[in-house]
Structure formats: C-alpha cells, structure tokens
Amino acid sequence: MISCPICARPSAPEFRPFCSKRCADIDLAKWLTGSYRVPAAPDDEAESIENEPGEDRDTAH
After folding, report:
1. Which of 46, 48, 24, 28 is nearest to 36 (CA)?
2. How far apart are CA 53 and CA 26, in angstroms?
3. pLDDT in tens, 13-24
C-alpha cells in the first residue's frame, strides 16, 4: 500500500497518492507557492555553458 506523501497515512484510491483532498490541496499549495522547486543550474553556470568560447550563438542559421 502507498503512503500519503504529506501525512504518511494510507492513500485513498480517489485521492491517490494522497489520503484525502486536504493533503492533495496542501501539496498543490506547496507547488503554487514555490515550496517545491525543480533543481537547476545557477544562472552564472548556465550562461557559461551557453556562451562557450568559439561558438557564435547569436548568428541565425
């Protein structure tokens, strides 16, 4: 049986993987407020990858 990722109770089929609408709403609120984030490279690291020496990225092909 799958446990609710919010409160660890057994999940309910109608709210899977959550146990209730309350826990599903808590999870949604965390996504909407930015509590959950997808990891990404820091901006300065991403820019250095995009602008590697010897590559002209501004030229349209």
Report:
1. 28
2. 46
3. 999 999 999 999
**pTM for this predicted structure:** 0.59
Report the alpha-carbon distance of residue 4 to residue 18 in Å, rounded.
4
Give 20: exposed, middle or buried? Use CB within 10 Å, 0-12, 13-18, 19+.
middle
Q: What is the DSSP letter of 8?
A: -
What sign has the CA pseudo-torsion 8, 13, 18, 21?
Answer: negative
Residue with tokens 């799958």: 2
Of 17, 22, 21, the residue nearest 4 (C-alpha): 17
